[in-house]
Design goal:
about 55% helix; four-stranded antiparallel β-sheet; 3 helices; about 20% strand; alpha+beta; about 170 residues
């Protein structure tokens, strides 16, 4: 016969809550790290796609900027040419304004011709003195130079023909 001095064991299931909590917390932590890694990876991919898109845009824009700068230089060159042409085109404006100051009283201009820088005047004056006064005034003016009397005839009034050169702008010769 056997005698069992130990208490009889009963099979009781006990739950060790601490172990379960540790295991669950480790698993949740690993899962959170995985989810966090996934979101970081997706953000990285999106940022790389944005960087590639912006690089492509920069390449396109750099080509357009180069074209813009080329066209801008071309426009500036054309504007400079236009400005020079405008100065030459309206050389008569200063001549006409100055003519109003140099014509003496009792003298008039019948015809006025301007071709480039050559000026020709045909007109009438009361006497020879008025014609000489007109020539002197034109010689003293900064707009006219090389003033010459081509023809002078007198009937009741004095008919005159005068030629002159218009002064060139600075830098033009």
């Amino acid at each position: 016969m056997k005698v069992n001095l130990l208490k009889e064991r009963q099979k009781v299931y006990s739950i060790n809550w601490i172990e379960i909590l540790v295991i669950i917390s480790v698993v949740v932590t690993i899962m959170l790290m995985g989810v966090h890694y996934y979101f970081l990876y997706m953000d990285k991919e999106l940022l790389e796609a944005d960087i590639n898109y912006l690089d492509n845009q920069l390449n396109i824009l750099s080509v357009r900027v180069a074209e813009y700068n080329r066209l801008k230089a071309e426009v500036e060159e054309l504007e400079a040419i236009k400005e020079k042409m405008d100065q030459l085109k309206y050389v008569w404006a200063d001549a006409l304004i100055e003519l109003g100051f140099v014509i003496p009283e009792k003298a008039l201009v019948n015809t006025l011709q301007i071709e480039e820088t050559d000026l020709r005047l045909n007109g009438l004056a009361l006497d020879n003195q008025r014609v000489l006064e007109l020539v002197d005034n034109m010689n003293q003016s900064p707009v006219y130079h090389d003033v010459k009397i081509i023809n002078l005839s007198q009937s009741n009034d004095v008919n005159y023909n005068i030629s002159a050169l218009l002064a060139a702008e600075e830098g033009e010769e």
